[in-house]
Structures are given as C-alpha cells and as structure tokens.
Amino acid sequence: MDGIFRVSVERCIACGKCELACAFSHSRNGQPGAARIRVLRRGPERGIPLTCLQCHDAACVAACPMTALVRDPATGVVRLLEARCVRCGLCVTACPFGNMVPEPDAPPAKCDLCGGTPRCVSFCPTAALEYLPADAALQGLHTNRARDLSPA
Fold first, then answer.
1. Residue ranges of the domains in the chain?
2. How many CB atoms lie within 10 A of CB 109?
3. Which CATH architecture has domain 53-110?
4. Is the pLDDT of residue 138 over 80?
5. DSSP secondary structure string, 69-112?
6. pLDDT averaged over the chain?
7. Rounded-to-integer distance, Cα 19 and Cα 146, Å
8. Could you say which DSSP state residue 43 is in?
C-alpha cells in the first residue's frame, strides 16, 4: 500500500472538520455525501477519528456477491465499483469496524483515500490525522515502540 493513516488520538479535539471535508469532497448532485470518516466523541474536545483500515483480508470484499469491491493493485486501496453494486448492504454488515456507510439512494460510502490525498488530513487543525508513506509510518511506529520498551 502506498500510504497509511496515522491517527494521534491525543491530538483530536472532536471538531468534526475531517467529517465535513470528507462529506463535501464526496458530494452528489450538489449535496454533501456521507462522510467516510467519523469521530467517536469521548467528551468535550476529545475524540477518536475512525476510518477504513483497508484491511488485507477485507470482510466487505469477501461479502460482496457482485465483486463491486476490489483492491486496486497499484495503490492497495479497496475501491467500490458503483456500476457493479446492487446495494444489497452485505458489505455494510460484514465490516467489523462499521466503516462501510449506507447512503440513501446510492451505493454504500467507503473511504477511497481521495485518490491518495485524503481531504480529512488536510483539514485537521491539530494534525491528529496524517497520511504517510507506508514505510515512513511503520518506521515511526517501530521507533516509538522501541522507545516505549527501553528500560527507564
């Protein structure tokens, strides 16, 4: 996969700007679409941004009887091919994280990483969301994990 979301929960102020940016960047017929990211609000100015994990063995892909969900071999993103979708909702119920969002009169909404430049990231005022090259995100994870495990 080209990039990975890195979420710094301690920075999230639950402002919802990521949700608005997502909804407006996926508008239909002049109306905001369903946000593909949501913030689980945990009190005043505390939240946890939740978005599609682009699972390796994605349950939504396995559940789709029309093969409307496919992994893009170039980017690794699981994409929804709207022309194939019959709106049965099996992908929505299959996602264990609730990241397939049902939309009225449209196929379910799923994070497509905005073609590699997620709008939610650019609108986050506290940098709680980052979209990093996979190797850089993993390197930071390993560095932080090693620091956390080192003797005090």
1. 4-51+116-152, 53-110
2. 21
3. 2-Layer Sandwich (3.30)
4. no
5. EEE-TTT--EEE-TTT-----HHHHH-TT--SEEETTEEEE---
6. 89
7. 33
8. S
